[in-house]
Design a protein that fits this description.
By secondary structure, this protein is mostly helical. It folds into 2 domains: 34-123, Orthogonal Bundle (DNA polymerase, domain 1), CATH 1.10.150; 138-321, Intergrase catalytic core (hpI Integrase, Chain A, Orthogonal Bundle). 51% of the residues lie in helices and 3% in strands. The protein is built from 13 helices and 3 strands, in the order H-H-H-H-H-H-H-E-E-E-H-H-H-H-H-H. Strand 1 (183-184) and strand 2 (189-192) form a beta hairpin. The chain is globular and about 70 Å long. The N and C termini lie far apart (101 Å).
Length: 324
């Protein structure tokens, strides 16, 4: 058989079958490494006065993310990478959320440094059922007041402060800034200007005869103490030396006394925030609407108010039956 010239000649380069290149190209990553970014950010945090513990947490969590995800550069961080990291953890959702917040904070600092063009991580979240904090039980308030020695200045001050929070719901730092000018004795009102409230709005809160009497006795005693220590202020709640409390702090002398009483008398949930929640629950039990309670508490969001009300399953069922 004679070979037919050109019959099996194909005009096709053998290079087309070279699926494996003779020389692989090495990808050059121009992105900043996570390790270098972390070093810079930790230095920035130190300069800004962050606590050593906070910086250690940052370093631990970011390093854990980098090692678990097996990535080295910032541009390798993707939404799916973060979700895979979260899914790999054998911990509670609350712990996942805490770690995620630290990672997102680190990435946001990277964005602020110009290493990212968008905050793609903002939509990533971990659902956690929030545990509702309990309000102080009215009976515990009564027990505490009966145990405080109101024949002393500190005892009188503390008892008046506790009743003020329980009957008006004001915050502990607002309490520390309360002055004589805020009390309208004739109309039985606390008239709080925006300068001492978190939402900076004027608020009027009714007070009863018991508080009126206590304020008058306390103010009289305050003036004696101020005169003795040569202090000049008009605050309602003072230190034993006549000076104003650390008014804008939530950890002032009254707050510390509440902690002391709780331990001394074995009373649970005795703190300023729990007493404020008790005020909200007391209003609800007396028939006040959530909207009215929210206004009294100075909240801008009804969702926050509902968390204060601590409704259990049985209460919800009983209350809903009235609407059937």
């Amino acid at each position: 058989m004679t070979k037919k010239s050109g019959l099996f000649n194909i005009d096709f380069s053998s290079e087309e079958f070279e699926f494996i290149p003779q020389q692989s190209k090495v990808k050059v990553n121009n992105s900043k490494s996570i390790e270098d970014a972390l070093t810079v950010i930790l230095q920035q945090m130190q300069t800004s006065g962050y606590r050593e513990r906070t910086m250690m947490d940052y370093e631990t969590i970011v390093s854990n993310f980098r090692n678990a995800s097996n990535i080295e550069y910032l541009d390798e961080v993707k939404t799916e990478t973060i979700y895979e990291w979260l899914d790999s953890m054998q911990v509670t959702n609350q712990t996942k959320l805490t770690r995620l917040k630290a990672l997102k904070s680190f990435l946001s600092k990277c964005f602020n440094n110009g290493w990212y063009k968008s905050k793609f991580w903002q939509s990533i979240n971990v659902k956690v059922d929030k545990k509702v904090k309990k309000g102080t039980k009215p009976n515990d308030i009564q027990v505490l007041l009966s145990l405080i020695d109101t024949s002393t200045f500190t005892g009188l001050r503390d008892a008046t402060a506790i009743l003020t929070m329980y009957k008006t719901g004001i915050r502990i730092n607002t309490l520390g800034q309360l002055e004589e000018r805020h009390i309208d004795f004739e109309n039985k009102l606390l008239i709080l200007d925006g300068s001492i409230l978190k939402n900076h709005q004027v608020l009027k809160l009714p007070i009863d005869e018991q508080l009126i009497r206590l304020y008058k006795v306390l103010i009289k005693q305050n003036r004696k103490i101020r005169a003795h220590y040569k202090q000049s202020n008009t605050n309602i709640f003072l230190s034993y030396k006549g000076t104003a409390l650390n008014s804008k702090s939530t950890n002032n002398a009254i707050s510390k006394q509440l902690t002391k009483y709780s331990k001394k008398y074995g009373l649970e949930n005795i703190n300023a925030h729990a007493i404020r929640r008790a005020y909200a629950k007391n209003l609800l039990n007396k028939g006040a609407s959530v909207a009215l309670i929210s206004k009294a508490l100075g909240h801008s969001d009804l969702a926050v108010t509902t968390q204060y009300l601590d409704l259990d399953i049985e209460e919800v069922a009983t209350s809903l039956r009235d609407f059937l």
